[in-house]
Amino acid sequence: QVQLVESGGGLVQAGGSLRLSCAASGRPFSLIAMGWFRQAPGKEREFVAGISRSGGNTDAADSVKGRFTISRDNAKNSVYLQVNSLKPEDTGVYYCAATQTLGRDDLVYRRGYIFWGQGTQVTVSS
Question: Cβ–Cβ contacts within 10 Å for residue 90, how many?
Answer without folding.
Answer: 22
